[in-house]
Specification:
By secondary structure, this protein is an alpha/beta fold. It has one domain: Rossmann fold (3-Layer(aba) Sandwich). About 40% of the residues lie in helices and about 15% in strands. It contains 13 helices and ten strands. Helix 1 crosses helix 8. The radius of gyration is 19 Å and the shape is globular. It starts with a strand and ends with a helix.
Length: about 350
């Protein structure tokens, strides 16, 4: 397939830029969607530092508008649908996230189906897998688990990713069974930033480096390096496995405190403000009264989000970068880029 053209939606995003690099370096032609012409030069400049961009092109398209999507998918052999809103705080109206996630996914899928694009890979998330389950659950989450949307504590973002993936799978099964579909469901995405436009993924690491909090709350994350996420998108695109694959992009789960300690050990004096002490739960609850970022973490206090993605590892033959290295590499890149 390398010489084929692949559409990457939302190519200016953190994950999408790495996906573009993965495909360009594997010999694919890449067409990326941007919402405005101004993003083209910035993305091209960033990617040109790491790959030959002669096979890179752009098209303007908006997830909430039908225009341009037929042109975007024209002459493409596959679509990586990466674009989706990722907020740093909870919106007052959850539909601000749900509408572009669900309607946008279906809009891109319909255009791809009409153009007879043979393959479609959707960037979903582990939040579509592991949220809303009983707190007493100890079994690790697998590719077969889904977030129950009716459960308390399920955020607007988790709803948006769950509904978008469900909608895509329903559409393919009902309206385009011949389309080869797969989802890649990343955990908390770490790894090196390519430029200063890092988005929400890097906020926790930025807060560490800036010393915003003196200690680490008891929060765990299933983590993954963005380079592995990009590789998994390519492998999901190329696999000869049946349509419908669901691939959990997770290296390992890690406590926030262990993540912070790994960054401090790796970066040394540059990471002098990174906290390495545990934060009592009651302190976070008080901070959450005034701090919307801390407020989002209260529901997950003390919860271990274990993942068993052995099925994914076998299917894609994946060996993952350790979470400690992914966190340290992200921190190093933020320092190098002058983001902190």
């Amino acid at each position: 397939m390398p010489t084929e053209r692949v559409l990457i939606t939302g190519i200016s995003g953190f994950i999408a830029k790495h996906c573009a690099l993965e495909l360009l370096n594997a010999g694919y032609r890449v067409r990326g969607t941007v919402r405005s012409a101004g993003a083209r030069d910035a993305v091209r400049t960033t990617l040109a530092k790491h790959a030959d961009v002669i096979a890179l092109e752009f098209v303007e398209a908006d997830l909430l508008k039908d225009e341009q999507w037929p042109a975007a998918v024209e002459d493409c052999s596959a679509v990586l649908h990466v674009a989706s809103p990722f907020p740093s705080s909870r919106p007052k109206d959850e539909n601000v996230l749900i509408r572009p996630a669900v309607d946008g996914t279906l809009r891109v899928l319909r255009a791809a189906a009409a153009a007879r694009v043979p393959r479609f890979v959707q960037t979903s998330s582990t939040v579509a897998v592991m949220y809303g389950h009983p707190p007493e659950r100890t079994a690790p989450f697998t590719e077969t688990d889904w977030t129950p949307l009716e459960s308390p504590g399920v955020t607007a973002y988790a709803k948006s990713k769950t509904l978008a993936e469900r909608a895509a799978r329903d559409f393919v099964e009902r309206d385009r069974p011949g389309l080869h579909y797969a989802s890649v469901n990343p955990g908390f995405v770490l790894g090196p930033a390519l430029d200063r436009d890092v988005g929400a993924s890097a906020e926790i690491i930025q807060m560490f480096l800036k010393g915003k909090y003196p200690a680490c709350p008891r929060i765990s994350f299933p983590c993954v390096d963005v380079r592995d996420v990009a590789k998994m998108h390519r492998l999901a695109l190329e696999t000869d496995a049946p349509s419908g694959g669901r691939y959990l992009a997770v290296s390992e789960s890690i406590w926030m405190l262990d993540m912070a300690r790994a960054i401090k050990a790796s970066l040394g004096p540059v990471a002098r403000k990174v906290p390495t002490r545990p934060m009592p739960d009651w302190v976070l609850r008080i901070v959450a009264i005034f701090d919307p970022v801390a407020r989002q973490a209260v529901h997950d206090l003390g919860r271990w989000y274990g993942i068993d993605n052995s099925q994914t590892r076998r299917a894609l033959r994946m060996e993952f970068i350790p979470a400690s290295k992914a966190a340290s590499d992200m921190a190093e890149s933020l320092v190098r880029l002058g983001v902190v």
